[in-house]
Amino acid sequence: MKTLKIIKIGGHIIDSPKLLTEFLEQYAQLAAPKILIHGGGKTASTLAENLGIPVKMDQGRRITDEEMLKVTTMVYAGLLNKHIVATLQGAQCNAIGLTGADANCIEAQKRPVTDIDYGFAGDITKVNTQLILSLLEQQLSPVFCAVTHDKNGQLLNTNADTVAAAIASSLSAEFDVMLYYCFEKKGVLKDLHDEGSLLETLCLDDFTSLQQEGIIASGMIPKLHNCFEALTHGVTAVKIGIPAMLFSNIPHTTVQL
Amino acid sequence: MKTLKIIKIGGHIIDSPKLLTEFLEQYAQLAAPKILIHGGGKTASTLAENLGIPVKMDQGRRITDEEMLKVTTMVYAGLLNKHIVATLQGAQCNAIGLTGADANCIEAQKRPVTDIDYGFAGDITKVNTQLILSLLEQQLSPVFCAVTHDKNGQLLNTNADTVAAAIASSLSAEFDVMLYYCFEKKGVLKDLHDEGSLLETLCLDDFTSLQQEGIIASGMIPKLHNCFEALTHGVTAVKIGIPAMLFSNIPHTTVQL
């Protein structure tokens, strides 16, 4: 099978114009087929603050009320997605920007209210690969932002890591899918403040132990859940690290079952 | 040849949630193939005001500085385009939202500075129909907003009427293209305050005379220029009126060469 690279960028990379431009210049050179997924939470929070809309979070997860959904839709699907697409087009990469609502690529359901009401947060129920496959066949490079819909007229804010894992899983029947989570750290660190504590490989058993010991915590836990989900659903390889791992032999974390 | 309907919505329709929802419910029922183009100037101006960004206009044309380009990109490509796509998806219309940067559909150049510097305003140089034709073949309904790019990394704010005319012209070799400009008036009126003064047909000679007499003025002049441009480039028919003209036999203006 042909290899498909699926790359999620987040963290400081998407929120720093300089790091983003550097990354996109390199991404444009990467051999197709490839798919990019991006977040942009900090930029969304900044716009919300400028508009006087309160930014509400619960344990690092955004609570998306109606006003915040407008903000995330504007920032993710408008400002960032189209900036990325235009930049890639300028670097001779034939990019096309998409949300999950476009061509009904990604269906989700509004997260059920339990102790916490996350508002218009979407949990993915289905990825429809027909258009994505057609675009890849036409040598186009899809760029997805973290917006989905419920197929009933409602847009939903969705975790970008989860979008990446869901798209990767859905295409694993057609491709050898390599899934890369790129951010500002070299990978999963045993000590967040020590890049030397990088775990070069991480399997599910290790993850369980390290989580129990409290060594892996906060935002890394849902990210790793996404990694294992993708591997369980047939994704060939999952890697976490700085973007340079895509282009050179640089240490990173390889996640394994 | 197969008929393709290209519909541009602007004016109060795009800026009023109620009118927009009503229109989209009807649009969803319209037989494919079809393409929707939308503006959203008032919503963009409102966001700019809320952010303390000055709204600059010259004779009804927006001056797009760097901050305003961010605003129009957020509102057109994000907020409005994705709201429209999700609403159509909810009404069983398989819509896909696009800017001119996506898949390099519409190339433009930054308007040269003469007496006035319009900033990041784009004049269309080329429509690339390959992706649009592929989407129509796949029974998808493209929804374009008024954002293009220069193929060198720069997004550009572009008049939505012109986007509609350019897309219509570019597809006239493949389809019998019917181009509809929908807004809140019944069509071209000799007296803006009297719906009874509707011109049911308007040819180029009449337009020239009426323009000289000062009867057709302001925003209607560039709109009609777009209409004649489209007809000159092979578009089969161009109509101006309220959205109901699409679905029933209601008076409107038919523009003819």
Task: Provide a concise account of the structure shown.
2 copies of one chain form a homodimer. The first copy, chain A, has 257 residues and is α/β, with parallel strands linked by helices.
Written description of the protein model:
2 copies of one chain form a homodimer. Chain A has 8 helices and 14 strands. The model of chain A has no long low-confidence stretch (mean pLDDT 95). The first copy, chain A, has an 8-stranded mixed β-sheet with strand order 5-8-2-1-11-13-14-12, with helices on both faces. A two-stranded antiparallel ribbon of chain A has the order 3-4. With 257 residues, the first copy, chain A, is α/β, with parallel strands linked by helices. The longest helix of chain A has 25 residues, at 66-90. Chain A has a single domain, classed as 3-Layer(aba) Sandwich (Carbamate kinase), CATH 3.40.1160.
What's the helix and strand layout?
2 copies of one chain form a homodimer.
Chain A: E1 3-9, H1 11-15, H2 17-29, E2 34-38, H3 41-50, E3 56-58, E4 61-63, H4 66-90, E5 95-98, E6 106-110, E7 122-127, H5 130-137, E8 141-145, E9 147-149, E10 155-157, H6 160-170, E11 176-182, E12 201-203, H7 204-212, H8 220-232, E13 237-241, E14 253-256
Parallel strand pairs in A: 1-2, 1-11, 2-8, 5-8, 11-13, 12-14
Antiparallel strand pairs in A: 3-4, 6-7, 9-10, 13-14
Helix pairs in contact in A: 2-4, 3-4, 6-8
